[in-house]
Amino acid sequence: MLAMSTRVPPLVLLLTAAAILAQQPATSPAAPAATSPYFRELKIDSGLHLVLTGSINLPNFQEPDVGSYYAPFYGAYVTSVDHREKKPGAVARERSLYLETGQDQVLDRTVKTDEILRGPFGTVDLKKECFYTRPIRNGFGSVSVEFGYNDPDPELPSEVSRPGEGLPPLTSLSLVRIFRTSPEYVIVSANYERDGNLGSVDFGTAKNGIPMRTDPFGTSVYRTPDPQVNELQAKELGPSLTKYGIPTHIDVQKYLLSRQMPLPAVAFDQEKNVMHEIYGFGKLIRQDELKDGSVVASRWLQPSVTEEEKDTLNPLCDARFRQQQAIGLPTVE
Fold it and tell me: Domain map of the chain by residue range?
C-alpha cells in the first residue's frame, strides 16, 4: 500500500448568513464582526491581519452576479476568506485565492488552485500553497500538479502567447500520465524539483469524468528533508512508479533543448501524456502534450494575480520559496 499524505482541501464552502453569525468566535475578539456575507475589498496590514471593507448587501444575501468579491468564514479560532470572481458571461464563479489565519488571526497560509487540464478523465489542477509566519521547516510552501478531485470552482488561467523577455526562472516541472483502464481512468501526476529529481507523485481515478476514491488514490511524497524517510518512500513507491512509467529523474536541460521525453512502456492504454514547465513558482506554465516522446502541441498558461498577491503576498511567498531552495527543502508536494 502506498504511504499517502492527507490533502488539505482548499475550498471553504459557501455558508448562509445565519451560519456565519452563529459561528462568530467568542474566544477570538480580534476577528471582525460579520455584518455581510460578502465584501468588495481586502487589505492586509503590516501585521498580516485581514481587513475586509465594502460590505455587499444584496436581497436575501445573494452572491454578486459579476466582479471580484470576498467571502469570509469566521471559525472558532481561525478566519478563512475566499477571493471569488464572477467574470462577465461566465456560467460559474472562480476562486482566485483562499486565505486562512492562525489562531492569533494573523495570516497563516494561502492556496491558489488553477485548472490546467480537462477531459473525459476529469480535471488536473496546479496548486500553489504558501505559508507566511510558521518556522520555515514546519511550514514550507509547494507548487504541485494534482488530480482535481475536490475543487468545484478552481480558477481558469489565461492562455497567453509565448513570453519574450522577463520570463521568470524555471522552478519545477510536472509530468502527467493519463491511462484508460476500462471503465475508469488513472491519472498520475509526478512533480519534479528544478534539478529534475522527483519530489512527489499524485494518483487519481475517474469514471465518466467523475472522481473515484479507488486505488491508486492520494499524494505520496518522494523527497523529504529526512534521508531515512526518502529511502523508505523510494522502496514503497518503486513498484507503482514502474507500473505507470514514472521516471525518478528528468534531464531538464536535455528536455528543454530537444523537446524529447521518451517514456517507459506500460501495460495500459495511454489517453494523454503532458509535461509542464513551471516558472516563477507558478506565475507561468508551459504545457507540452507528448506523443511517442515528442512534443506535438504546446501552450502557455498564466494564473491571475490578485491585488493582495501583487502588493503583499507574492513577494513574501517567493522569498520563502527561495529560502527553501537555499537550505535544501522541497518546493513540490
Answer: 11-105
